[in-house]
Amino acid sequence: MEFNQIADQLEHQAIELPSWAFGNSGTRFRVFSTPGTPRDPYEKIADAAQVHAHTGLAPTVALHIPWDTVDDYAQLASYAGELGVGLGTINSNTFQDEDYKFGSLCSHDRAVRQKAIDHHRACIEVMNATGSRDLKIWLADGSNYPGQADIGARQDRLAESLATIYAELSDDQRLVLEYKFFEPAFYHTDVPDWGTAYAQVSALGERAVVCLDTGHHAPGTNIEFIVAQLLRLGKLGSFDFNSRFYADDDLIVGAADPFQLFRIMHEVITNGGYGPQSPVAFMLDQCHNIEDKVPGQIRSVLNVQEATAKALLVDREALHNAQQANDVLGANAVLMDAYHTDVRADLAQWRQDRGLPGDPMKAFADSGYLERISADRVGGQQAGWGA
Ligand code: PSV
Ligand code: MN
């Protein structure tokens, strides 16, 4: 396959940026700040708009409530529109309140469950104001010690809580349930894996789907298999892309294992998850602990584009024929040929043909934006986890 045969298909790529990627973040040891870090959701959106302006790849920004609380969400949406981006997924947060120490939607305390449900109601109101399609739910619920919790009863309460929230959504809105096998709970989490997420969303209905965060799997997990399976079941709602070396590292997607990202995009494309009709939302879920945030996000979306281009280059007919002929090495060679193709010069040209900078990293560095926000954003409280 030649690059010009796939160039048009790259137009369909849209990668949603997480507002929290522009705030400060770190580990339990230290949160470092960077000059110019946004102080409010408006400044986060202004930074996100820079990523889209330089790449054409990131037309929407996901919000996290309450981190991105504003008085007027419609006004925030129109501000985003003025900068050339839109507001996307609304992420709920039931992990930073004392009341949720022993769980939220799964808690055995009815009042705590109700509080968590009410928070999701508030998130749906935000969605109504912003025009967002997706409510993404990631739960920190779980337990730390065997015997601490009644695991089955918690699943029942989760099903009941999710059904209550799902009933509040309008016909064009979706509930997206994200799984994670550990952290902050260390013995069990209430939505540890794709199977549990699938079982829970299947019981809700058609507009309930699964979010696959690439960092939320045990080492060695064949993530692309899960992608293929969820797509054939019609339940892959979204990705949270990031890289992990050890656990949920939230590093730049494609940094740790570009081959895995390619394999994931290959399964996405093979199983109908890519293109204008695809219901899959491609999001980043990353933190930039030590690198500058805006270029960190630019690097990330470019990495996804590069992996996508290579995956589109797979000669699917040749692959199919080799598979049918049990040509093990031939089939593998078809895939590896695409992976080893250097698409960087073609992508630079692709961008220039569309009025974008050939080298977005350099163009952003040359733009003086970082220097400007460092000088302008003085005083106030820099955003970070919890703000
Ligand atoms: C949890 O690790 C998670 O990946 C969830 O996606 C959250 O939405 C995100 O982090 C930020 O809280
Ligand atoms: Mn995530």
UniProtKB/TrEMBL annotation:
Its EC number is 5.3.1.14. It comes from the Bacteria. It is an enzyme of class 5 (isomerase). Keywords: Isomerase, Manganese, Metal-binding. One of its GO terms (molecular function) is metal ion binding. One of its GO terms (biological process) is rhamnose catabolic process. It holds the Pfam family AP_endonuc_2. PANTHER family: L-RHAMNOSE ISOMERASE. This is L-rhamnose isomerase. It comes from Candidatus Avipropionibacterium avicola. The gene is rhaI.
